[in-house]
Amino acid sequence: MLPKGHAGKEVTQTFSAYLPTFEDVFDEESFYIFAFCLTIGAFVIAFLASKHFKLKDAGH
User: Fold this and answer.
1) Which residue of 1, 20, 25, 31 has the fewest C-beta atoms within 10 A of its own C-beta?
2) Ranges of each domain in the chain
3) Can you tell me where the transmembrane regions are (predicted)?
């Protein structure tokens, strides 16, 4: 925990007043949709990257 009056604590409190909370951004259904799309997107990026980059065994 930061000491009382620490500049980092004041900056964090100032910016947290401007940022929306998790509940303001997502409800339960929209969170699941976001998580699903993020997961599918990660798989697609990994698949495309595996086609582009070839890994070689360092011992051979």
Assistant:
1) 1
2) 6-52
3) 31-50
